[in-house]
Structures are given as C-alpha cells and as structure tokens.
Amino acid sequence: MSAEAFSPPSFGRAVVRVFDLSLGEMLWSRRTLFMAVVAGGPVLIAVALRLAASSAAARFTGSAGGPSFALGGPDIFGLMIWAFYLRFTVPVLGVFYGTSLIADEVEDKTITYLFTRPIPRGAILVGKYLAYLACTSVVILPSVVVVYFSVVPLFGGSVGAGFPSLVADLGLIGLGLAVYGAAFAFVGARLRRPLLSGLLFIFGWEPVVVVVPGYMKNLTVAYYLQGLVPHAAPQDEAMTLLRSALRTFEPAPAAWICVLALVAIWVVTLGAAVRAVERREYVLER
Amino acid sequence: MTAADPAPDPGPVARLDEVTVTYGRQAALRGVTAEFAAGAVGLLGPNGAGKSTLLKALLGFVRPDAGTLRALGFDVARQPLAVRARIGYMPESDAHIPGLNAVSFVAYCGQLAGLPRAPAVQRAHEVLQYVGLGEERYRLVDTYSTGMKQRIKLAQALVHDPDLLCLDEPTNGMDPRGRDEMLALVRDLAYRKDVNVIVSSHLLPDVEATCEHVLVMHQGSLVAAGPIAELKGPGRRAFELRIKGDAIRFAEELREAGADCHDDGTGVLRVLVGENRGARDLFALAATRGVQVRHLRPSVPTLEDVFAQAIGETDA
Amino acid sequence: MGIHDQSYRRYVGPRTEPGAAWSVIAWSGIRALLARRIFLVVLLFAWSQFVVRAVLLYLSANFPSMELIAPSVQTFRDFFDQQSFFVFVVTVYAGAGLIANDRRANALQIYLAKPLTRAEYVAGKAGVLVAFLLLVTWVPAMLLLVLQAMFAGNLTFVRENLFLLPAMTVFAMLEVLAASFAMLALSSLSTSARFAGMLYAGAILFTTAIFQTVRGVTGSSAASWISLSANLAQVGDVIFGVAPRHDTPWGISLLIVVGLIGASLAVLGWRVRGVEVVT
User: Fold this and answer.
1) Contact C39, C33 (CB under 8 A)
2) Chain A residue with minimal CA distance to C214?
3) Chain A nearest-CA residue for B99
4) Smaller CB count within 10 Å for chain C: N or C?
C-alpha cells in the first residue's frame, strides 16, 4: 500500500462525518428526553390556556409589578417566549449541551477513538456543535410554533398579523442557541467543571450584571438577546423592575449592534473552543 | 464483631441449603445445596454458571427467593452485618472508590469495616506492601493499570483481616507474572495465614493452583463438589487418544465400556479409565470396533477432566 | 532485635460496633470537598451575605439614626431567601457526584460488602451535603442572631422573637433535607456527576420557569405548587410567621416538599444496591 494513496478528509468533510455520527447519538440520548420535557412544558401550558379559554369567559391579566392589563393571545405568546424560552430554555440547553460536547467523550473515555482518526480535532468539536444546534432546533423550534398557533388566536389575536413576530422569535431562539452553545462549548473544552461554571454564568453572573449600570453587561449574552426581543418584557420580579428603572437611563442598544455583538461572541467563542480542543491534552484516567 | 453476636459454629465456613435466586424470569441459582470447607475452595463454572450470584448471595447483596445461607456460622439473612464484618470480598469488575490514593482507599475500607482510624491506616500500609503495591501506594487508584487494580481490590478485601475471603475472578486482566504472584498470594493466605478463601473462576489452572476443594457450577446448579484429588479419581489413569474413523461414535463406545471420555476440541480424545485398566484395553476396544489408533499418550487426570465430565453429564 | 514481619499479619486490635460507618463516609466526603480550593471559594462567597448583614446589625445596634435597617423577623426570612442561591450551587457542586461517581467506579459493591447497611451508606452521603448546606444556611443565621444580641448588648430582640430559633432550625432542615435527598436521588440515577447535576438544575429551573410563565399569563401565583423552590418559599413564610407570598395553600406546598423527600428516599432505596440487577 502506498502512502500517497491515502489522503485524509478535509476539515469540511470531517465536520460532516462527525455531525452525522453525533446527530443520531444526540437525538436518541437521555438528554433528549430532558429536552423533550422542556419543550413540552410550554406546549402543555398553551393547551391548558386553550381549554381554559374555551370553557369559561377567562381573561388573563398581567401580573404584579405594574398596573393590571388585559392580555391578548399575542401578548401571552410574547410573554411565554420571553419568560420561558429566552430566559430559561435557550441558556439552559446551551449549558447542558455545549458543556457536554467534549466532556461527555472525555468522561466516557471515547475521545481517544475520535482523536486517533485522521481528522483535525477542531472538526470534531465543530461537527458535534452543529449536531447540538440541529438537535435542539429540531425539538425546540416546533414547540414554539405549536405554542404560537395554540395561543395567539386566543382572545381575538390574529395568527397572520403576528407571523413576522413568530419568524423573528424563531430566529432569535436559533441565534441564542448558537451563541450560548458556542460559549459553553468553549467552557466545556477548557474547564474541568464546566456545568457549574455555566450555571453560575447564566443564573449568577448574567441576571446581576445585566442590571448594573456601566459596561459590565457587555460581558453577557443576555444583554444583547434582550435588545432583540420584539415583545415587551413583563415586570414580574424585583430584578426586572430594577432593570426597567435603569433602562430609563440606559436604552437598549440598536438591533444591528445586538446582532453584530452576538455574531462576534459566537465566532470568538467557537474559535476559542476549537483552539482549546486542538491544543489541550485530555486526561482520561480520572 | 458485636457483643450481641453469638459465637460462630465450627464446621464448614459457608453452607447453602436449597438456595434459589432469580433475576426476573431468569434463574441464576436453582436450589443449590453446598458446603464450603475450611481452607481454599474453588468455585468453578463457565461464564453465567451462577458463581458471582452465589458470592453475592453469600454477602447479602441478593436475597434468595428460597433457601438459606450460612457463613462462618451466621445466618446471612438475619445477621448480614456480622457476616460482612468477617468476609472480605474482591469483586470481579473494576471497582474502587474514586478520588482516593491507594493508602486512603484501603484505610477507608478498613474504617468502613470497623477498624479505628489509626490501625486502619497502619493496616493499609501493611496490606499494600503485602500485595505488592508498596511503591505505588500514594498514587491515585483511578490511574492504576488493570493488574494493579486487581491487587488493590485484594488489599481492600484484606485490610480488616477477614476470616473468609471471597475472590471473584482474581486474575482477570493480569499478565502472566502478575497472575503467578496473585495465585501465590492466595496460596499464602489460605495455607500459611489461616484465611479461608473462596476462589471463583472460570480458569481451571487458577483453581487447581490454589485450592484443595472445588465446587463446579453449571447453569445455576451445583454439578460436582469435593476435594479435587477425590474428584479426579484416585488411581484413575488418563490417556490422550487420536484415531482414524468416527471419533464421536468411538467416544460413545468408550463411555459404554465404562471410561470417561471427552473431546478436547482439537480432535484429541481424553480418556479416563479405572486403575485396573490401561492402554491395552483401549487398543483392544479399538480393534473390536475396527478403529485405527493413530496416537496414544499416557497423561494424568486434571481438574479439566473433572470439569468437563461434570458439565458434560449435566448437558447430557 | 526483632525483625518486623512485612508479610500479612492477622489483626488483633479493636473494632468498632457496626452502625458508625455513616460517619466515616460523611467525614471522608467532607474532607475531600474541603480539599478543593474552588469549593472553599464557593463557601466563602456563600458567607458574603452574612458579613453584610453582620455589618448592618452592628450599625443598627450602635447608631440610633439607622433604625430603618433594624433587624426584624423579615430580616432573617430574607437571609434564608437569598441564601437559597448558594444552597442550589453547593447542592450541585457537592452533591451531583456523591453517588454517581461511586456508581461509575462500581464502588457500591465495595461499600456494601462491608458491615454497613444501605441506609447507612445513604446517611453518610447525605451527611456530606447536609453538613455543607447547614453551613451556608442554619449556621450563619444562628450566628447572626448571636451577633445581634452581642452588638445590641441585650437579649430584647432574641427574647421577643424566641420562636426564630425553632423556626430557623425547622426551615433550614426542611430546605436542606429536600435539596440533599433530591440531589442524592438524581445522583443515584446516573453514572455521570455532570448529568446528575443537569437533572437537578433542570428540575429546579424548569419548574420555576413554568411557574413564572403561568404566573405571568394568569396574574396569579396559585400555580406556585409547580415550582419546587416556590413551595419551599411558601412553607418558609408560614414557618417564619410572615405573610405567604403565593396563593397556593401552604399545606399543599408542605405536602409537595415532604412528598419530594419521600420520593427521593424511595428512589435511593431502589437504586442503592450492591448488585446491578438487569431483568
């Protein structure tokens, strides 16, 4: 056999191979069960709302923090997008999946099988990252669409009129999954305890820093995602109240700045993750 | 040992009486009645014979559906802690407590077994030295090689000085030298240190090298038991035989003539005959059956013969 | 001069009675965690609120103009409320691997081959978590009460609010036991500490997100029973004698918290075994 006969696959082809391998693995993993529950939660709420709306002359009002106001279907949908998907689902899935991309393989001692193939290490991370993105999008985005069609027609809402908002929401959730996933892929590739670091970031660092005046909030993903939310954020907590109070002095950045910042975070963190995987020596014994 | 525990009865170190264990619909032990004599006893059987289940039942990990077990004079079902305080168990699978170095791990196991901290640490050092890990005792167990993990499993089973040591496949994954050393340790414990040992293995040479007694298990049942020398048959003679012709049929004819016979898998028949019979009888039988003997070599009865005979009879 | 026998020797020294192995397990776990620098940093952060509140207590006791920050029952209730974040962090950090790591390394058969019961094993593992969770809840709260008396130079506040002692103890134990057993149960379901941590974090955050969404839509907190942390908060309010924050009857919240502990113990009884039975 001659050495010239073999040529290793290119970066792109390697990414596709790893993507192909990882997608099936991710879709049929225990974690998908958790994701299905996460995606099913708002669908259940939507179904419950429809039942409540049809069985009685129910009318929902906005909650504490501001004056009560009647909520229409589009308002409820906007609230669910904000409260459930953007504030919970997107960052949590980003942490759970992103930190696991490499850590799972290290923990199962299977990374050796991937690293000994004639493909760049970075392609392994990118392939698995794309599989994460496809896997989460396939489960979460349909859930958003189901919620939209269940909730928006309630109390006189128009499905057609709100459609551009749905498209924007889907794009925003997709972008959020991409950015959080890339950021936590880096954390997972770099740190020994990525899960706790990730949870501290999204539930410790981000909520606090986002309301602090100054430049600190620029070190979060949530700040830029909030700037793109097409719906008004509900005032349901003291923290949100404080945030809205501070916002009177500090308006949200323009949408194009938010998009640019999110893309920059995405590129930088994914690049850093690739670099970390390329250079780091993973110890499998522990 | 607790003050409340009565003094153990003398006699066999462990006794099973009609013990049945099932996992769902699968019977792992089927009404097994057996006695483990003092000293070193081998528990033989192919994979899935029920050896590990028997040991786990002895430790109280699995509760039998029927029957009773006694170990060191205690009823396993009623006094499991008293039993486990006197038993050392070396599991078959890779098992350790993560994040500890060897000394901490073994000392920790000693403490769990009831030793105060200082003696536990002292025993840990001694036992690690004994099993050949003295130089590696401050290394994390997680980083040990397969052979070293076998040794540390033995160390943790020994640290509290048990009266009965249950070793499940003790030489798994060891290199030839490591295997010899492990077997030497087992022999030393059984014959010089007065520790009763049960060696569960599917490797016949391991059992033959360490034990005087053997229990052969097959498909959840006990198919042979007793001192190895007796089971081999005192005065019996063995021959390796290769013939031209129908070997299966000739083997049947040998059995009908009162010999034990099995194929060793390479076309060679191992034939065991009584002390009054010999090669001449084999030639005579071959001549009457029109079979040509191509090769005949005297041999000695081995544990493999006992095993093959026991398993063969059960299957038949 | 005698020659030391370096081969195997029989042990003739003392042995402790069975029943104390749980403390060996607990101490070993506590020592292992205290050896981690990051965990010490987490603990240090968890005490930051105590430091701030201690300063406030000093100021209110020594400067009459600071009456606005004078301690009340609500002060101690708020303290526990704000410590719940650290309860979450410590639970995930210290608890996720307690059983999962043992299952990964097949350590359960090592443990259970020793003279200890499954209950002792669980108690030992729970002891690790309970100790650290009490260290970030009950211990600083009690110290705050002591500091208040010391700064004020009298026992007036303590005497007037004597019920705080049992209230803080009962609530801390309820919170700590619920978190500990829930985490241990999830840890026993997996061989990956990370996955166990995810399950716990997911369960807490998911139920809270669902509750917040429903509350946002309906304008009522009657669905607070959905959220594990809201149930604890509701029961805590009742124990401290302050107005309950949610519309769910506190009895239901208590039932759910107790049910969670019971369900966790049932899971632990099912999963903590010396042998993996596959049927």
Assistant:
1) yes
2) A45
3) A286
4) N
SS3 B140: strand
Instruction: Give the confidence band of B5 by pLDDT, cuts at 50, 70, 90.
Output: low
B94 touches A: beta carbon within 8 Å: no
Which of these ranges, A164-178, B68-82, B221-235, C260-274, has the smallest mean pLDDT?
B221-235
The residues of A whose Cβ lies within 8 A of any Cβ of C are 30-31, 34, 37-38, 41-42, 45, 49, 60-64, 68, 71, 76, 79-80, 83-84, 87-89, 92, 96, 99-100, 103-104, 107, 193-196, 199-200, 203-204, 234, 236
A285 chain-B contacts, CB cut-off 8 A: 140, 142-143
CB-CB neighbors (< 8 A) of C9 in chain B: 126
- Name the neighbours of C, counting chains with at least 3 Cβ pairs within 8 A: A, B
Query: Can you give the pLDDT at residue A57?
Result: 54
Report the gap between the CA of B143 and the closest CA in chain A (Å).
Answer: 5
Contact state of C10 with B194 under an 8 Å Cβ cutoff: yes
| Half-sphere exposure for C172 (CA within 13 Å, toward CB) | 24
pTM more than 0.90? no
Instruction: For residue B178, give both structure tokens.
Output: 């490591």
Length of chain A: 286
Q: Cα angle at A241 between A240 and A247, to 5 degrees?
A: 85
Do residues C108 and C102 touch, judged by C-beta distance below 8 A? yes
Query: Max CA-CA distance within chain A?
Result: 79
Contact A71, A62 (CB under 8 A): yes
CA of A76 vs chain C CAs: smallest distance (Å): 6
In degrees, to the nearest 5, what angle opens at C-alpha C222 toward C-alphas C219 and C228?
Answer: 115
Residue A240's pLDDT is 54
* pLDDT tens digits along C81-92: 999 999 999 999
CB distance from A193 to chain B under 8 Å? Answer: no
- The structural domains of chain A, with segments of one domain joined by +, span 9-52+70-279
Q: How far apart are alpha carbons B144 and C59 in whole angstroms?
A: 57
Q: What is the pLDDT of residues A2-46, one digit of tens each?
A: 556 778 888 899 999 999 999 988 888 877 888 888 889 889 988
What are the residue ranges in chain C where pLDDT is below 70?
1-6, 274-279
* CB contact burial B32-53 (16+ within 10 A = b; e otherwise): bebbbbbbbbbbbbeeebbbbb
Distance separating alpha carbons of residues A202 and A215, to the nearest angstrom: 18
A61 DSSP 8-state letter: B
Instruction: Check B112 against C15: CB less than 8 A apart.
Output: no
Neighbouring-strand partners of residue B88: B165
Element containing residue B14 per DSSP (H, E): strand B14-23
CA dihedral B161, B163, B169, B175 (to 10 degrees): 40
Pick from C275, B58, C93: which is nearest to A192 by CA? C93
Query: Which residues on A lie below 8 Å from C219 (Cβ)?
Result: 60-64, 68
Distance CA C201, CA A21 (A): 28
Q: What are phi and psi of C278, to 5 degrees?
A: -110, 115
| Burial track C13-48 (b if 16+ CB lie within 10 A, e otherwise) | eebbebeebbebbbbbbbebbeeeeebeebbeebbe
Q: What is the dihedral of CA A124, A129, A135, A136, to 10 degrees?
A: 160
C21 vs B23: CB contact, 8 Å cut-off?
A: no
Nearest-by-Cβ selection for B81 from C14, C115, C275: C115
**A4 — contact with chain B (CB < 8 Å)?**
no
Structure tokens at B246: 């129908």
Percent helix, percent strand, percent coil in chain B, to nearest 5: 40, 30, 35
Assign B237 to helix, strand or coil.
Answer: strand
